[in-house]
Amino acid sequence: MTIHREGYSILLIALLILTTLNMLLYYLAPQKIVLQNAVLVASIIIFLFLLQFFRNPPLKIQLQEGKVLAPADGKVVVIEETTESEYFKDKRKQISIFMSPLNVHVNRVPVSGVVKYVRYHSGSYLVAWHPKSSTENERNTVVIRQRDGKEILVRQIAGVLARRICCYVKEGQRVVQGTEFGFIKFGSRVDVFLPLNAKITVQLHQKTTAGKTVIAELAQN
After folding, report:
1. What are the start-end ranges of the H helices in the chain?
2. Given this model, what pLDDT does residue 29 score?
3. Which are the contacts of 202, defined by CB distance < 8 A and separation ≥ 6?
4. What whole-number distance in Å separates Cα of residue 205 and Cα of residue 36?
5. DSSP-assigned letter for residue 50
6. Which residues in 51-104 belong to E strands, given as ranges?
7. Is 182 in contact with 115 (CB distance < 8 Å)?
8. What is the per-residue pLDDT across 137-166, written as a single tens digit (0 to 9) for each?
9. Do 146 and 68 meet the contact criterion of CB atoms below 8 Å apart?
10. Starting at the edge strand that comes first in sequence, how are the strands of the sheet with 165-167 ordered?
11. Which pLDDT score is estimated for 55?
12. CB neighbour class for 184 (10 Å; exposed up to 12, middle 13-18, buried from 19)
């Protein structure tokens, strides 16, 4: 299992703190065996949780032109027609994927193309499934224009626990479907905004795998 680079420093700090705590208990309270064992077990559970959160399983990328791949592991919580007010400022189809702390939190490019727009917005930390989280929470918006001119908007949204959104792409950069473009720490959500004539291929509550699950098919010109 490989570990995502965003986890290196956190895992090292957690390991140092937990090791120090257990050593202090061992030397300062040698008779309290039950307490020592309880803290040791809790420390192992905490470290394993962090380890699995920052896991980054290898992915064999298979390009699928005309199809939109899931940008995140998780569960589909929203499928609706709505107004996207930041970039398109018109009606779009929206698909939202909720990532629990148990999911892989690597975000992947849904379609190949050129990054036309990247904007970070500070904000609140409502629960990720809240209807207003898409417009009021801390978030980062990325728009990718395909070679046929179609544009897809992907929005990373922080949740109650997620307090850092990482985005690795810049405007003007060419990106390839399925490759990594970002990471969100500790529970979050990713929204995708599609043209109205896109065919949705997922259902509510369906589980998705980033870079593999086809969430929509785009109409051909």
Report:
1. 8-28, 33-53, 133-136
2. 85
3. 70, 76, 79, 95, 208, 213, 214, 215, 216
4. 42
5. H
6. 67-69, 74-84, 90-99
7. no
8. 788 999 999 999 999 999 999 865 555 789
9. no
10. 106-108, 180-184, 165-167
11. 85
12. buried
Per-residue pLDDT, 21: 92
C-alpha closest to that of 10 among 58, 46, 45, 39 = 46
Query: For the chain, which ranges sit under pLDDT 50?
Result: none
In the prediction, which pLDDT does 184 show? 87
State the pLDDT at residue 209. 95
Residue pair 154/177 in contact by the 8 Å Cβ criterion: no
Q: How high is the pLDDT of residue 176? A: 97
Give domain limits for the chain: 5-53, 67-217
Rounded to whole angstroms, the Cα distance separating 129 from 10 reads 26
Between CA 131 and CA 187 the distance in angstroms is 16
Look at residue 52 in the predicted model and tell me its pLDDT. 81
Taking the C-alpha atoms of residue 166 and residue 75, their distance in angstroms, rounded to an integer, is: 21
Q: What is the CATH class of 67-217? A: mainly beta
Return the active site residues. Answer: 188
Residue 52 sits at the vertex; the CA angle it makes with 49 and 54, to the nearest 5 degrees, is 110
Distances (CA, A) of 145 to 116, 117, 148, 157: 6, 9, 8, 21
